[in-house]
Amino acid sequence: xxxxxxxxxxxxxxxxxxxxxxxxxxxxxxxxxxxxxxxxxxxxxxxxxxxxxxxxxxxxxxxxxxxxxxxxxxxxxxxxxxxxxxxxxxxxxxxxxxxxxxxxxxxxxxxxxxxxxxxxxxxxxxxxxxxxxxxxxxxxxxxxxxxxxxxxxxxxxxxxxxxxxxxxxxxxxxxxxxxxxxxxxxxxxxxxxxxxxxxxxxxxxxxxxxxxxxxxxxxxxxxxxxxxxxxxxxxxxxxxxxxxxxxxxxxxxxxxx
Amino acid sequence: xxxxxxxxxxxxxxxxxxxxxxxxxxxxxxxxxxxxxxxxxxxxxxxxxxxxxxxxxxxxxxxxxxxxxxxxxxxxxxxxxxxxxxxxxxxxxxxxxxxxxxxxxxxxxxxxxxxxxxxxxxxxxxxxxxxxxxxxxxxxxxxxxxxxxxxxxxxxxxxxxxxxxxxxxxxxxxxxxxxxxxxxxxxxxxxxxxxxxxxxxxxxxxxxxxxxxxxxxxxxxxxxxxxxxxxxxxxxxxxxxxxxxxxxxxxxxxxxx
Lengths: 257, 257
Fold this sequence. Notes:
The structure is a homodimer.
Chain A: E1 2-7, H1 11-26, E2 30-36, E3 52-53, E4 64-67, H2 74-80, E5 87-90, E6 105-111, E7 128-132, H3 135-148, E8 152-154, H4 157-187, H5 196-204, H6 211-214, H7 224-233, H8 237-256
Parallel strand pairs in A: 1-2, 1-4, 2-3, 4-5, 5-6, 7-8
Antiparallel strand pairs in A: 6-7
């Protein structure tokens, strides 16, 4: 049995706690022994009183401590851990393994997903990126990852940094484009639902085509008339700037191919 | 029986021809009578010789003529039609109904989807935006639309123009962000597949949340440290410009809420 302790009480912590609990019910080699939260109330809806600690000195022995706190707090939390030579992994996409204090064996356990409160996630389909300082620790982290997900990757700190930037483009930024689509629809009394099949198809296409092969629209066609009409239509400064910037980038990207 | 004639041989024409043919096999109230193509070869893999014409003067009588040519050619094609007072509709998202010559009864039949050659589409899930000059013609176009799709909307020319701009944001532009994600992955020896569940989730979330509610990431969190690290990481000028432009827009959009 691999004993896991979770440090933190945010979205990632709560989704992991729920997932480990569900897996324990059906039997698994991973056991959630304890969770740390500065405020007990943050996790009280998920765990019994005795399984939550608010004091680092009360952390029980575990095979892995998963630090799920915000990026800025990882270093400080890892310094406050009152033990050494245990396996401690953070769950951040943007922080290197070396962000953790080196008195413990360091690792990374990064679920590549955008977690939203109140939106259930199925970890089975969430890629987990694992990194460690030695092969034995890698196997432990990999084993935990495989219990909750079908998609486990060994990704080093440099790759993870690149991956996190890529994730901002494909997730945060495309979501903002969807927000702009929604704004344009609302302003013109068009139901936003009308755009959803198109948004789904945009992603589904990439099961069979590369994004470059799938690129369509006035920018890649150099359809100057439509581009000019769209720019004239956009009276929101940010929307216009995004339209011009992305059109230019699509056209220059097309040239490189 | 509603008789439909398709003018054009591009992606939209070919997808419509295939769909009407499939529906005729199972029995429907819509009949594809003829297709016009400048070059017969363009449609020879889909239709028998006698069902293709290359001469406007050979166009048979039909209840609706669907002009599926490129935006720039719509006006010229509608002027070359050697008949009057028949229902003629174009299939463009960006052109007003008035782009068609007014010697015929004008309409629009716009399937809101990005069609890629070699990628099959299921029209059932593709919204079709219908517009016409009178109620009788609207009913005819609506009836054809309902035969091939479950999602039919009455959308006027002003709304369709807005919708087309919105579609560029949610489809063309987000696809380009996916292309950038792919480029970053390739450059760092990371399989692009690792990002696909995140991309799917980005769209799926919008079944239950608005794009503003679903917005996550360093921009909306004002996580200056991560933003600076990402900007330092990006050595491609266009990628950096997009990163800064979208980050700024996300932050200003957040303020408006």
